[in-house]
Amino acid sequence: MALMVPLVLAYLRYDPLVRIHLGPLSISPHGMGIAVGFLLGSYFFLGWCRKAGLTDDQVYSLVNRAAIGSIIGARVAYVINHPGDFNNPLEIFAVWKGGISLLGGIGGAVLAGVPKMRRDGLSFWKVMDMAVPCVTMGIIVGRVGDLIIADHLGKPTNFFLGYVCPSHVTGSPCLAPIGQAVHQPALYDFVSAIFLLVVLLRLRRTVRYDGFLTLVFGAWYGTGRFMEDFFRIDVTHGTGLTGSQWTALTVLGLCLYCLVILRDTPWKSGKGDFVSIPARHRTEEPEEPEMPAVEVEPEPDPDPSVVEADQPKEDAE
User: Fold this and answer.
1) Longest dimension (CA), the chain
2) Full-model pTM
3) Helix axes 124-149, 102-120, angle to 10 degrees
4) Cys-Cys link to 16, which of 65, 150, 258, 291 (CB 3.0-4.6 A)?
5) Pick from 130, 135, 126: which is nearest to 103 by CA?
6) Most confident listed range (5-14, 91-100, 197-206, 302-311)
7) What is the 3-state secondary structure (H, E, C) of 252-284?
8) How many Cβ atoms from other residues are within 10 Å of residue 55's Cβ?
């Protein structure tokens, strides 16, 4: 009996909840997780932007653009990496067929917000430093939805955090016999994102150069996604690495260069009070030369005789 306890605790066992049926409605916990995560991140983003001096109209515009850009980017990235999943181009717009890419969604959200930042003279780095903790919150909540439906199941494993394939339908195919375990990369990403959020919130307390939090996010999450995808089942197109891994490697390399070698804001961004200027580009403004003091000589007193002559004489009584 004592030997059976470790075997029972060795793997995660639960029946997934792929759909929630409310009358005629069929709701996916996965979709709910994405929506709630986005709303939660937007709430904190709005508060931090207000404190930084942005107007509500500016923030709402950025959030709306990010929502649209994330949907488009997530789908486009998936289609590019999985062109064989579609029989005709029209199926690309059937978002319920195939899937979406988290990294593509993040990239699409950022690209959609850049024109608004440039138009309003907002520093890309200041805005992103406020955004990346919010993005991390969204990832955490979104991964909860993935775990509920048992999505993104990976390769077979004996790892103690492996997920035991149930007899029920799962969010993604469980490529192991019922009762045997597979990797659950969504769980690994969930745990990594929690630690990342804690680090980002602590780093926010100290004033650093603009873009520092953004670079930390890119380096941390890029490392995590690169490692996690070795446990996933995805196409590699003969390269040995998935599309997400190539993307993660690129982001990781750029962020590490800026963090370790550059140690500064990557480039100037924004205008006026909301500008980010790299320290290496700052020059001391030359002091204006002091103008020599000019002594003003007092005007001489007018001649009394002239003054009397100019005054009209009163008639004698």
Assistant:
1) 139
2) 0.84
3) 150
4) 150
5) 135
6) 197-206
7) HHHHHHHHHHHCCCCCCECCHHHCECCHHHCCC
8) 11
